[in-house]
Write a structure and sequence with these properties.
single chain; alpha/beta; about 15% strand; globular
Length: about 160
């Protein structure tokens, strides 16, 4: 546990001093959702104070009405399920989309029968993400319009 705490503190001090820029297409995608009055939530494996710091420094925190962090929990399915239930109490929506950059994210979404979008911006390659059978796989979020094309064809 000491190592974990030390790693967290080191990460936090690095984050405080580091400039953080959003990945290509992220700001455009979030702006598109905001303009179209879509609810936006983020679920992350990061600790809450680190996630907020990253999103704030990247200029993205303002886009999210929901931010759920694992804060030590490892079960992504339970975290997602809990987050969706809490969101349903606050907001009226009928469609949930899970976007992730790991096969674990995609598998969790599939286990909950949620439309899944894999984005190859993390440690898992595009090919590896495709093997987890997302509903849609993107190389970057610059391709975000494909999400809405796919959704409109699935109805």
């Amino acid at each position: 546990k000491k190592i974990s705490l030390t790693k967290t503190l080191n990460l936090r001090s690095l984050l405080i001093h580091k400039k953080i820029k959003p990945l290509q297409g992220v700001s455009e995608f979030l702006n598109y959702l905001k303009i179209n009055k879509e609810y936006r939530g983020a679920v992350t494996g990061n600790l809450k104070h680190n996630a907020e710091l990253i999103l704030r420094k990247a200029g993205l925190l303002k886009f999210f009405s929901i931010l759920k962090c694992a804060d030590g929990l490892n079960n992504r399915v339970q975290i997602l399920k809990r987050t969706i239930l809490q969101a349903r109490k606050r907001y009226n929506f009928d469609k949930v989309i899970i976007m992730g950059d790991t096969t674990k994210d995609i598998k969790a979404g599939k286990e909950l029968s949620i439309f899944t979008v894999a984005v190859a911006t993390g440690s898992d390659s595009y090919q590896k993400l495709r093997l987890s059978q997302p509903d849609l796989a993107l190389h970057t979020l610059k391709e975000y319009r494909k999400i809405f094309d796919k959704l409109s064809k699935s109805h």
